[in-house]
Design a protein that fits this description.
Sig_transdc_resp-reg_C-effctor; Rossmann fold; WH-like_DNA-bd_sf; globular; HTH luxR-type domain-containing protein; 116 residues; DNA binding; mainly alpha
């Protein structure tokens, strides 16, 4: 299994220059760069604290999934980035929905995108 920390240092860091900070962030996430979280916090400074306050039942992986949903990642993209199956992502989304008390008739992806 690749270690993300050593993976980032074993290859020269490619500078990411784009006028679109969301695209830069998505690129960092897709590369597995651990700096994506600090970049995310610059773009959405209150999201993680508000999502944590919405439910104390969320664990670190749930919050990472919420970040990916906030970024607009699809289930397939989340599965690819997290190196898990589509079914595992669907199950995680279901658990997040229950922990945040999101109604069944509301789209979780849309909920995250519009959540502060």
């Amino acid at each position: 299994m690749n270690n993300l920390v050593t993976q980032n240092y074993s290859h020269p860091q490619e500078p990411v220059f784009s006028s679109n900070p969301m695209q830069n962030l998505k690129s960092l996430i897709e590369k597995g760069d651990l700096h994506f979280l600090s970049e995310f916090n610059e773009i959405f400074p209150d999201f993680i604290s508000k999502i944590k306050s919405a439910s104390s039942k969320l664990n670190a992986m749930d919050i990472k999934f919420c970040v990916l949903l906030k970024m607009g990642f699809t289930t397939k993209e989340i599965a690819s980035v997290t190196k898990s199956t589509i079914r595992a992502v669907q199950s995680r989304k279901y658990r997040i929905r229950k922990r945040l008390d999101v109604p069944n008739d509301e789209d979780l992806n849309l909920f995250m995108v519009t959540f502060f």
